[in-house]
Specification:
about 110 residues; mainly alpha
Length: about 110
């Protein structure tokens, strides 16, 4: 009896898999939840925002007052660049939001 149930289950499973592969809707990968073009656009905008934030922070660290503060703290530019590069996108964004105030304060 158990062998018969297992055999029937195997047949139905094989049939279901066969139907899935023969159905043309399953074969095409065009109907994604999010289109590939949208994913690429979102990725590009995220990368552009990160690059802009990094550039804003670099401009602040290039100011003489910021370099002097780094020197007094015994931190060199390379250490600061490595630390900033490891920040998450959210942390980097928050720091970049403060950059204009830091430029006004330092410069």
């Amino acid at each position: 009896m158990i062998v018969r149930v297992q055999r029937d289950l195997a047949i139905w499973t094989a049939f279901a898999v066969l139907v899935m592969f023969l159905d043309p809707r399953c074969a095409t990968a065009q109907d994604h939840v999010v289109p590939l073009s949208q994913l690429q656009k979102d990725m590009r905008s995220t990368l552009d925002a990160r690059a802009k934030n990094l550039a804003d922070i670099e401009r602040v660290f290039a100011l003489p007052a910021a370099q002097e503060a780094l020197t007094k703290s015994h931190v060199n530019q390379d250490q600061m660049r490595k630390a900033v590069a490891q920040l998450s996108d959210e942390e980097l964004s928050r720091l970049a939001d403060r950059a204009p105030r830091l430029r006004a304060y330092c410069g």
